[in-house]
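Sequence design from tokenized structure. All designs in this work follow the same two-part layout: the structure record, then the generated sequence. An example of the structure record is given first.
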């Protein structure tokens, strides 16, 4: 009797558990709620979910430019993908330095960051998030059918491959996951990651559209990423793939994309059109293969081009000359970069004004005390300027190479006649 009672009790308990589980398996009653079922209810809804994948590389949270961030433990503005990509690739070289002292930031230029660096951690999380979003989209969109959905899935696979390309480049051996799972993934080596990225891009290149709407990738984007992958193959796998790099680079060169030659604002060059707010319609769009889309009203962020423009303006620079209302005084070049370029002194001086009879002479000038003088240019009433390469030494300021008209503190040196040197 005791055994029967135990059996009945077990059956009753199991029934209660199952019943409770079914009771919780309800659809939301709130008409304003939005579930995963709604997101993938149709092709149109799935396109909106695809937009989130693209946005994950441009935006940083649910409110722009900051608020409800996707990634914790770092200033939200710092966590934007292209901003971190610039910092990790450029500030770690002699190309650029940033003057801010935020934790972890000076470590990048000093080349002494660790695995706990705020920026290396945040970039890893950002890219891992892009992979997770893509995996979720691919799984759920696969429940739909049709050619358009297949293109959506191919785009998601490209974005996942692009995220893994950056993980491979920046971090080396990272876990490779293609499905949403609660199990801890195992670490993959660079060759495995390389092969996965290559196979994904090869498979989707015939599914992606030959031409797509602005901001979405097409099959040329897959070719462009393959060419970059092959360019670095030897460093990542030990085997060079330069021939394949040339092949896919040639595919890109021969595609419908071309360098922008349209000088839309008529200032004598078409180059600046690439950086204008209307670069999606001014002709520059014909040069862009894969873009992260930003809009001052609809997709605000402290990263992207906002960061690149504002952060590089400081000191005596006039923000209005760059089309913005203020500078952040952060990014700047190092002297090593400046020294790579030869200065055309003749061109600089010819822009100052009319050449005058006033000049510089002395041991600090190229011609020494015997002259001829370095002739200056008149830039205002009783004001003369010159760009000149000087060395350590003395110099004087005189008129028409005549010692009867020269300026100095006491008649022996010319420092009082020079405002700036």
């Amino acid at each position: 009797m005791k055994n029967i009672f135990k059996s009945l009790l077990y059956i009753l308990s199991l029934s209660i558990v199952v019943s409770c589980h079914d009771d919780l398996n309800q659809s939301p009653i709130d008409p304003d709620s939005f579930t995963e079922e709604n997101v993938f209810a149709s092709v149109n809804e799935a396109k909106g979910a695809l937009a989130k994948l693209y946005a994950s590389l441009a935006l940083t949270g649910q409110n722009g430019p900051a608020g409800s961030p996707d990634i914790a433990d770092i200033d939200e503005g710092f966590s934007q993908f292209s901003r971190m990509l610039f910092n990790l690739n450029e500030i770690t070289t002699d190309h650029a330095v940033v003057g801010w002292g935020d934790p972890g930031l000076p470590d990048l230029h000093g080349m002494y960051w660790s695995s706990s660096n705020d920026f290396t951690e945040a970039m890893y999380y950002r890219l891992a998030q892009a992979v997770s979003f893509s995996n979720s989209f691919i799984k759920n969109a696969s429940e739909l059918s049709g050619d358009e959905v297949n293109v959506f899935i191919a785009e998601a696979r490209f974005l996942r491959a692009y995220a893994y390309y950056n993980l491979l480049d920046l971090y080396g051996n990272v876990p490779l996951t293609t499905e949403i799972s609660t199990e801890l993934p195992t670490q993959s080596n660079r060759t495995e990651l390389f092969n996965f990225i290559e196979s994904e891009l090869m498979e989707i290149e015939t599914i992606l559209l030959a031409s797509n709407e602005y901001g979405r990738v097409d099959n040329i984007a897959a070719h462009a990423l393959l060419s970059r992958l092959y360019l670095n193959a030897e460093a990542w796998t030990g085997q060079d793939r330069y021939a394949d790099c040339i092949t896919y680079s040639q595919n890109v060169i021969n595609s419908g994309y071309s360098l922008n030659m349209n000088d839309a604002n008529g200032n004598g060059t078409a180059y600046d059109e690439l950086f204008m707010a209307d670069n999606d319609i001014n002709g520059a769009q014909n040069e862009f293969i894969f873009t992260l889309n930003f809009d001052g009203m609809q997709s605000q962020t402290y990263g992207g081009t906002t960061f690149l423009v504002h952060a590089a303006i400081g000191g005596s620079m006039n923000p209005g000359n760059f089309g913005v209302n203020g500078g952040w005084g952060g990014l700047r070049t190092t002297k090593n970069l400046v020294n790579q370029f030869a200065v055309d002194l003749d061109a600089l001086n010819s822009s100052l004004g009319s050449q005058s009879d006033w000049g510089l002479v002395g041991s600090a000038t190229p011609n020494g005390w015997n002259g001829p003088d370095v002739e200056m240019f008149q830039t205002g009433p009783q004001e003369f300027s010159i760009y000149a390469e000087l060395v350590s030494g003395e110099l004087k300021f005189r008129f028409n190479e005549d010692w009867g008209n020269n300026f100095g503190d006491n008649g022996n040196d010319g420092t009082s006649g020079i405002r700036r040197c």
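The CA atoms of residues 300 and 306 lie 9 Å apart. We note this feature because it recurs in several other targets discussed in the main text.
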